[in-house]
Structures
1.
Amino acid sequence: MIDLELPYPPSVNHYWRRVGARTLISRGGRAFRQTVCSILAAHGIRPLDGPVELVVDVFPPDRRRRDLDNLQKALLDALAHGGAYHDDSQIARLTIQRRHVVPVGKVRVRLEAQRDG
């Protein structure tokens, strides 16, 4: 099981940037991904094989209204890019829930190979 505390991810509304005809990951999105990669590397995380279960607890930075589904893209892509698993298509079960507000926000991620049954 992988159990990590990560920074609060950028919303999908701030993750992508359009530059001419190209769509790119924003500067903030790249910084988030690099931070997640560094955290995974520091913990010696190796990619899980096969189907995985992912539980995410979201601790928002303030009381503003936010859609939880807007946080998933940056987080799941960063976890894959950092080597927690090979590809987000491996995620067989995803649970995400909002928790209490904490300064600057954070997410807690628990990831494990899916059990049979």
2.
Amino acid sequence: MIFNKEGSTTIITQEKTTIVEFVKGIEKKQDTLKNDNIIVNLFSLKEISVDDLNEFLMISNRHKAARRSFVIVTDKISFDEVLDEITVVPTLQEAYDLVEMEEIERDLDF
């Protein structure tokens, strides 16, 4: 797992572990990441399923409840295929844009 912090956003890149182990690794770091927006980059994965993305549901819900963004980046699954509580975008640029828009909405109390 690679952590790259840019301002108030942390990009977490998946390397060579299973999704379940990856999620457990993020959960272990949740206390240190609780004040950051999180972008999970899954581009290194050759195959990914909707069930794999659903593994992130609890982390996503906790993070969003704390008024922080949680975005998964993959072009293997469309956002239409996943639960509404999980935010999926196909590119890192879209993830950055989405985090920025959500920050503006939070600042304006939307």
3.
Amino acid sequence: MNIGEVIKRCRLKRDFTQAELAEKLNVTPQAVSRWEMGVSYPDIAMIPKICSALFVTADDLLGIGPFGSSGSDLNWDKNDIADILNQSQADSIFDYVPSAAQGESKRVLITDDSDFMRMMVEDILTKQGHRVLQAGNGRECLKILGGEAVDVCVLDIGMPEMNGIETLKKIREDYPGLRVVMLSALSAKANVELALQLGADAFVVKPFQADTLVERIG
């Protein structure tokens, strides 16, 4: 479910018209309509205001909560909620030592089923001088890798058709030298350890700070 669909679902749940939500956000009703139709996306800076108006968390709005609708068979069991790791804990498993980004322009393939998340990550990376390609699931990712030169692949875990763990396995078989950064809210300890075992180079936990991702791109 993309961000526009989430906005519409929450708006209807609160019994707001598009005009009423627009007034709360100080935008035009046409802007809300375009979001909901997927024609355009709200600016990243609008996210806190939208969350406040619709009484939802940023994780729910972006579809990155642990029990969200991202379509994965690798979700957490609610009984294992204590095993969810934060960024420092994930870094510990990967023995990651923070370092400044190298400053070299890289060709990065972002693979995530959320249109808004891909847009947000692309915005972060292009501002750092990287060139960005996008894929909406693992199959699209592998198709692009078959025809394009890529330096880094950024992989979500919870995706339809082919999830990030399955995609990581295939990448390591076919492109053993490609740097892979997992970018997921599915940061249960078992998922982070599995990503390491399968050859991921880093794990970034959603929601994330822009610098955290930029550093791990290398």
